[in-house]
Amino acid sequence: MIPIDRYPKEITLRDNTLVTLRPMIAGDAESLWSFLRQLPEIDKAHFHEDVDRREVVERWAKALDYDAVLPILAMRGDCVSGSATLYRNRTGWKQRIGIVRILIAPDVRHLGLGTAMIREIRHLGEKLALNYLLAEVIEEQQAAVRALERMGFEKAAVYRNFVNDRKGHLHNLVVLLHPMSGLEKDRFF
Amino acid sequence: MSCPICGREHSSSPGRGRRTPAKEGTCPYKGVAYVELRAGHDQIYFGRWRRMDASSIDLRKAYRQLERLLREIAAALETEDIPAARMDLEKAFEALNTAGSGEEGPESLRYMDHALSYAHRVIGDLLHEKGLPPHSPADFAGWYDAGEVPFREDW
């Protein structure tokens, strides 16, 4: 069962800004699109599609499936200030691995929202009995790398000149893993 | 429970995450959530045991303070459903046990440091569950007359 009964959840940032965390709903397409457009290019590099195109985001909003992709949005009023998405495979050899993507609006960075989002995803990962959370970050996103490490993610690999941004420039990719508490119980061989 | 810093009874209200603006002589932890955990953490964080001239007495004292802090965190966690925090607390106890009571040397210091970091993360989890910002020792550094405050960074 997906533990979304904890939402909406209000949190206070360092500057006393109130933010509400909740799963994305179909009506969020417009505010999510606005949020994505204000992100620096490097933060959008991992998307398979051009998220500056409104129809792409609208299609996501119509096709929400929390079992496979659980996007938690950080809302300030009607505006999206951040998102933390947990991707899961329901079957197959990676069904106990959750892939994490966290995006934070430039105007609320360094206020603790990114860390709060990591805490949320860790909580969801535990409740979903995952064995690992996996985060992939471009090496230049140092604040994100450090925040993930402080929250228990460990650098598993750095792939040199491995991924390209939307302009074709190559970047190092950092892969971080967070072992979950159920992992030890699952080691049966 | 009395504040480990000033010895007074502060009400620990989960709804209050920010410290009261410090006046001369006023305990800066007055009114903050999880006051005993945060003050207990900082007492160790800014403690003498981390200084270059720390003695074995300082180290043993810090070990006992850490032991006490972890027990208090465990008590606070009992009523909360935060599996990630429980795992971190286990790791904190593990690190503290590896450090070995009263032993000196860089290995011991390193493990005590790890235990304190895990404890800090659990305190952050407890605060997050109440919707509050994480605890930052830098906010209270003035009280300890800390010459140099380690980095403070958030994302």
Produce a short descriptive summary.
The complex is a heterodimer of chains A (189) and B (155). Chain A is of the alpha+beta class and 189 residues long.
Fold blueprint:
The complex is a heterodimer of chains A (189) and B (155).
Chain A: E1 9-12, E2 18-23, H1 29-37, H2 54-62, E3 69-76, E4 79-88, E5 97-104, H3 113-127, E6 132-138, H4 142-150, E7 154-164, E8 170-179, H5 183-186
Parallel strand pairs in A: 5-6
Antiparallel strand pairs in A: 1-2, 2-3, 3-4, 4-5, 6-8, 7-8
Chain B: H1 35-45, H2 56-77, H3 83-99, H4 106-129, H5 141-144
Write a structural description:
The complex is a heterodimer of chains A (189) and B (155). Chain A is of the alpha+beta class and 189 residues long. Chain A has helices at 29-37, 54-62, 113-127, 142-150, 183-186, and strands at 9-12, 18-23, 69-76, 79-88, 97-104, 132-138, 154-164, 170-179. Chain A starts with 8 loop residues before the first strand and ends with a helix. Chain B is globular and about 40 Å long. The chains are: A alpha+beta (189), B mainly alpha (155). Chains A and B meet through strand 1, helix 3 and helix 4 of A and helix 3 and helix 4 of B.
Q: Mean pLDDT score of chain A, rounded?
A: 94
Give the topology string of chain B: H per helix, E per strand.
HHHHH
Radius of gyration of chain A: 16 Å
Radius of gyration of chain B: 15 Å
Assembly state (oligomeric): heterodimer
Ends apart, CA distance between termini of chain B = 33 Å
Number of helices of chain B: 5
Helix content of chain B: 40-55%
